[in-house]
Design a protein that fits this description.
It is a single chain. The protein has nine helices and eleven strands. It is of the alpha/beta class and about 350 residues long. It folds into two domains: about 140 residues, Nucleotidyltransferase, domain 5; about 170 residues, Nucleotidyltransferase, domain 5 (2-Layer Sandwich). A six-stranded mixed beta sheet has the order 5-4-1-2-3-6, sandwiched between helices. The protein has a five-stranded mixed beta sheet with strand order 9-8-7-10-11, with helices on both faces. Helix 2 links the parallel strand 4 and strand 5. Helix 6 packs antiparallel against helix 7. The longest helix is centred in the C-terminal third of the chain and has 32 residues. The radius of gyration is 20 Å and the shape is globular.
């Protein structure tokens, strides 16, 4: 049987990535990050798309080189079609179309959010390669998304709960910005939280019906709390940043896990996964292990390299779609916003 070799390309935001997957096994995963945005406190779309243009060819070349695969051996090219920043997406989409056309091989479009969920199915040579069993729940949390996804099959996913305003990662990044911790703030909050007391301060938690989330109230509560404390103690943030980070992180994690636990209980599901950039957070990962012990869940936590945007997740999604001959035509446009 002929090998299925997929080149995955990811360019939805500020990371240019390419990966090669053969028969579901990852051979290479190359990511080029963009430091240019740090000075602006957030991703600047125009700068991101220019950096993708500079990075995409070298990144694809390096991915093929590390995999030991010639471009003529590829079965198909899978690419992130959306959602994401339109300028960034267009670079990856245009390259994928031209590359596949030149090689005469099929194109496979991948939903970026699908990719995050399916990252749990990436096999590694010599790895344990344990995957969730269908159906399972996946908490998908990042700077732009906070969703509870019911996954019935690789191509059958349903969002049963999502944020009605800010995403969890967005709230953490904005709180970090108020504290003067720079961008991206999530990793800094995570590091500081490990040294602080998570019960030092209490912030407002939203009361939203069902499985939906809201983090705008928490963000506002945090802002007002700092404003009031700074009046009496101008260096309050610097003196208490570890406790502030730990308390903020603990509140966000508690909100996320409460809804996830409710969904798992109501649907009688014990297979529970987490995905997305915020799944790298130490507090959230610890909470998953804690809930596994308390509620008998079987939990799936991705390796750190698969939490942020990467092409390995696009490649594995493309591998599944290739097996069902789910190819796309060259005229399909990128899209900036879409649901699962």
């Amino acid at each position: 049987m002929k090998d299925i070799i997929i080149l995955g390309i990811e360019s939805s935001c500020d990371d240019t990535s390419a990966a090669v997957i053969r028969n579901g096994v990852l051979l290479s995963n190359v990511v080029a990050s963009q430091a240019v945005h740090e000075a602006y406190g957030g991703v600047v779309p125009e700068l991101a798309s220019r950096a993708h243009q500079q990075n995409v060819v070298p990144v694809v070349h390096e991915a093929l080189k590390r995999a030991g695969i010639a471009k003529e051996q590829l079965s198909a090219v899978a690419f992130t079609r959306g959602p994401g920043l339109m300028g960034s997406l267009l670079v990856g989409v245009s390259f994928a179309k031209g590359f596949a056309r030149a090689l005469g091989i099929p194109l496979i479009d991948v939903n970026h959010l699908h990719g995050h969920v399916l990252a749990h199915f990436i096999d590694e040579e010599g790895g344990e390669n344990v995957h969730p069993q269908f159906p399972f729940l996946c908490l998908l949390v990042s700077g732009g998304n906070s969703q509870i996804v019911l996954v019935k099959a690789y191509n059958q996913m349903e969002i049963i709960g999502q944020t009605i305003d800010d995403a969890a990662g967005e709230a953490i990044d904005k709180a970090a910005k108020v504290m003067g911790l720079g961008y991206p703030g999530g990793p800094v909050i995570d590091r500081l939280a490990r040294q602080g007391n998570p019960k030092a301060y209490r912030f407002a938690k939203p009361h939203i019906a069902g499985y939906d989330y809201s983090f705008s109230g928490l963000k506002t509560s945090f802002l007002y709390f700092l404003r009031d404390r700074l009046k009496d103690e101008p260096d309050f943030i610097e003196q208490h940043k570890e406790d502030l980070a730990a308390s903020l992180e603990a509140t966000v994690v508690e909100v996320l896990m409460d809804k996830l636990r409710k969904a798992a209980k109501d649907l009688h599901i014990k297979e529970v996964a987490v995905a997305g950039g915020v799944s790298a957070n130490n507090g959230l990962r610890n909470a998953f292990h804690d809930y596994a012990h308390r509620y008998g869940w079987k939990v799936y936590i991705p390796k750190l390299g698969y939490t942020t945007d990467n092409a390995a997740m696009i490649g594995i999604a493309g591998y599944f779609k290739y097996q069902n001959k789910e190819f796309c035509t060259i005229d399909l446009p990128a899209y900036s916003r879409v649901e699962l």
